Amino acid sequence: MGDGSGGEQGHGHGHGHGHGHGVSAEADRRYLTGALVLIVGFMAVEVVIGFIAQSLALISDAGHMLTDAIAIVFALVAMRIAQRPPQGGFTYGLKRAEIISAQINGITLLLLSAYFVYEGIGRLITPPEVEGAYVVFTGLTGIAVNVAATWMLSRANRSSLNVEGAFQHILNDLYAFVATTIAGLVIWLTGWGRADAIAALVVAALMLKAGWGLVRDSGRVFMEAAPAGMNPAEIGKKTAELEHVVEVHDLHIWEVTSGYAALSAHILVMPGADCHAVRVAAERLVHDQYGIGHTTLQVDHATPELLTIGQGDAHCADPHGPTHRRDTPAAPHPKRR
Predict the structure, then answer these.
(1) Which among 191, 265, 305, 322 would be 20 to 30 A from 46, CA to CA?
(2) Are 168 and 265 in contact (CB under 8 A)?
(3) Cα distance between the two ends of the chain
(4) pTM for the full model?
């Protein structure tokens, strides 16, 4: 281990922990369960009224509410699974079960949006007879139910993609009920049946936007990309500018699950520098400035050849990613006698 005593080659391996992703899972489950009860109860009523009124907008809302219920069930199951401790080959535990849930929610929104676009276009061409009064009163009731459900989920931890997926489902359903109610009012007052199809298309567009966002964000986690808004090149540059640091390479930043960023890197320091002190400084930098609480850092003393040539041979046999060095070359280390 590098201890600052001046050896030519030292090794320092550090693990910084303090993930900062703990939330009140029990409170989240209560909010999700309350929203689920509201949605399932109203959905059953809406299906019946939708068929009686011959309203695609109401039926699409009911279909969306079904996916809301499924999304919340997935979220509840995923939360339970994600709380299991690491064991066997699952060294991070099963935290990514929440990301799987978020991706399923996103995909169902995309599939539903495609279906309702197809049906909505068909009804624009050949509009059916729609009972506007049924649509208006059902829509108003749906708005009240979804406002309550949205409020419940807004109080849960939305930094979790899992909870955010369920929230987006219900929020889009609220927008859908607003559009449906307006369409029902237009039909009731003017008899213009195509308003129902237009409302369904508006709902489909909202589903498409929310679904794509969930698939994109969960896909970033699965592909082990750096968290959105976090620039690995900037972090590498700032780390390389720490005192005594010569080079930073093999820098990896990824998300284990929502709000749980992790970082690993290989840091080379000047011969004679304290590897432990540099590791602590690097951990403090990424924690305080970027909120990364889980780090695995390997800190070694740089070879004299690397210091002399500046760009010397690669320290690692199989380096990954760019190499970060100070803007100005490090001073050569004098040869030892």
Answers:
(1) 191
(2) no
(3) 23
(4) 0.71
